[in-house]
Amino acid sequence: MTKAVERYACLTFHTERLYDDKVWESVRDIVEFLDSKDMPATWFSIAPVHSVYLGRQFSPDKWSQRLRELSSRNQLIEQHTHFYKETKGPYDLSWTNLEKRLLEDKHWLESQGFKIKGFVGGGWAINKELLKLLVINDYLYDCTIATFTSNYTNVMAVPYPAKFPLRSKFLIEIPTSHHLSLKKAFSVISPFGRNQFVQLDESEFCVVYLHDWDLTKLRNRSTLKIILNILRRKAKFVTTRHLAKYLGSCHLPSIDLEEK
Question: Which range scores top for mean pLDDT: 49-53, 122-126, 208-212?
Fold first, then answer.
């Protein structure tokens, strides 16, 4: 008798414009929908206290209040960091700047009452130094690797794109598999699509991502609701932290973080 395959789905948001009232209205509309379906999502949030954000009049107080409202509605808050220096521009992926920006954002989010265990990098930027820092600072998982290629120029392959989860010592690398703005988003609900889910021996999963500001378009919100309504019949919705804990019990290929 064939053993049933566990199938999981994660919905994630790269949360970058929560200060904007129009974005917030759209976010609340989606959260109402998620509430009605008992579907948790993960909101990977920047910390709005970096000089780049303060210069654009981001409001840390408003941001913190809105994150707390999300958390009170069964939504998980995790970390999303862009590795700018003092001004917006190309990332500085040196150890010094990676550590500085990583811990600045983590400390601010935790000072607002959120226990941070998960991470996704801006621009899909990742290298072995970042992975080492995530391990050193006790992150449980990272979603920066992806199954799709990206037009961003910040990417440093470790490896890229990824077709399966990986382990970096105690850190679980969970591939982000679908983006709402890509045609591939619909493959996750198509009965005829190939490679709809990331596959393991006894389970499979998908991680769908979009930005909070993508929600301001009614077409995007409507498309997302259609996808989620169909996908919930095929998979169990969990947070990325829940998925990471499950994957931690699985045998996964390892990334060697030591220099050759």
Answer: 208-212
Residue pointed to by tokens 């490679």? 195
Band of residue 40 on the pLDDT scale cut at 50, 70, 90: very high
* Residue in this structure with the two tokens 């009170």, named with its chain if needed: 72
DSSP letter at 77 equals E
Which pair of structure tokens corresponds to residue 28? 């609340």
Neighbouring C-alpha atoms within 13 Å toward the C-beta of 128: 8
What is the reported pLDDT for 121? Answer: 93
DSSP 138-183: T--EE---BSS--S-S----SSSS-SS-EEETTEEE--B-EETTSG
Q: Which of 240, 249, 248, 245 is nearest to 13 (CA)?
A: 240
Please, is 208 exposed, middle or buried when counting C-beta atoms within 10 Å of its C-beta (0-12, 13-18, 19+)? buried
Architecture of domain 6-247: Alpha-Beta Barrel (3.20)
Contact between 206 and 12 under an 8 Å Cβ cutoff? The reply is: no
Which of 122, 158, 120, 115 is closest to 138 using CA atoms?
115
Among residues 41, 42, 96, the alpha carbon closest in space to that of 232 is found at 41
Reported pTM: 0.90
Helix spans in the chain (H): 21-37, 51-54, 60-72, 95-111, 128-136, 218-231, 240-247
Residue 259's pLDDT band, with cuts at 50, 70 and 90, is: low
Q: Report yes or no: 76 and 41 within 8 Å, Cβ to Cβ.
A: yes
Please, what is the Cα angle at 73 between 70 and 78, to 5 degrees? 45
